[in-house]
Specification:
6-stranded parallel β-sheet, alpha/beta, DNA polymerase, domain 1, globular, 6 strands, single chain
């Protein structure tokens, strides 16, 4: 069945989740952060995901902005950076995360080829709006879908159900793209055609399902969609 829609995870896939810490570390007066920003960004991301999974399995939901703030608090404490102004700055930068450089052109190519394009994300609507607007990609997206509609985080199947609800496409007509191996794998189990953007050269997750395609960045997506 031919692909009709290309649906993307947001954080880590279209938007660089390390950008906030990296950009803050380069600012004047942030020498302490400059020495540990990579470790802070890694912990921040891992706790953000971990806290979302724990909420999903315990049926205790808070929006992703709260989860992101709590994960940052842990990461700052781990690095002994008790600075409320730094916390505020990091969250402000996260709200307007930088997109990966190939994203605008890749989405424009998909739109020019007639594909429906969408985001399906754990992010809250306000978070997603901030990132999409900052990256300037709103004109090349048909839909920005948040898990807040169902009140549970990925990889719950109710999240993936939102794609057909919004776009009217059967799972087999969707190319789902994520930089999170677990997300791409779960989406494959759901029935999407899937691509894992493995920017870090990581091993494949040991799960019951596997993404069908593995890429190092998003550049090949338009060609891949045309071949499926």
């Amino acid at each position: 069945m031919a692909i009709k829609a290309c649906v993307f995870d947001a954080y880590g896939t279209l938007f660089d989740v390390a950008a906030a810490a990296r950009e803050a570390a380069a600012e004047p007066g942030q020498e302490a952060l400059a020495g540990c920003w990579q470790a802070l960004a890694e912990t921040w991301r891992q706790k953000q995901l971990g806290y979302s999974w724990l909420r999903a399995v315990t049926d205790t939901h808070d929006d992703f902005w709260q989860v992101t703030g709590e994960a940052l608090d842990y990461a700052l404490a781990e690095q002994n950076l008790a600075d409320p102004l730094l916390r505020e700055r990091l969250l402000a930068l996260y709200f307007e995360l930088s997109a990966y450089p190939e994203v605008p052109e890749m989405l424009s190519q998909l739109k020019a080829s007639g594909y429906t394009t969408a985001i399906l994300s754990n992010g809250s609507p306000d978070m997603l709006s901030g990132a999409v607007t900052s990256a300037g990609v709103e004109p090349v997206l048909d839909a920005v879908i948040s898990v807040e509609e169902v009140g549970v985080f990925k990889p719950d199947r109710r999240v993936y159900d939102l794609v057909e609800t919004h776009l009217g496409t059967a799972p087999a007509e969707v190319l789902f793209v994520s930089s999170n191996g677990w997300d791409a794998a779960a989406a494959a189990g759901y029935g999407f055609q899937t691509a894992w953007v493995n920017r870090g050269g990581l091993p494949m997750d040991r799960l019951p399902w596997r993404p069908a395609h593995e890429l190092t960045d998003l550049t090949p997506i338009p060609d891949l969609a045309g071949r499926l």
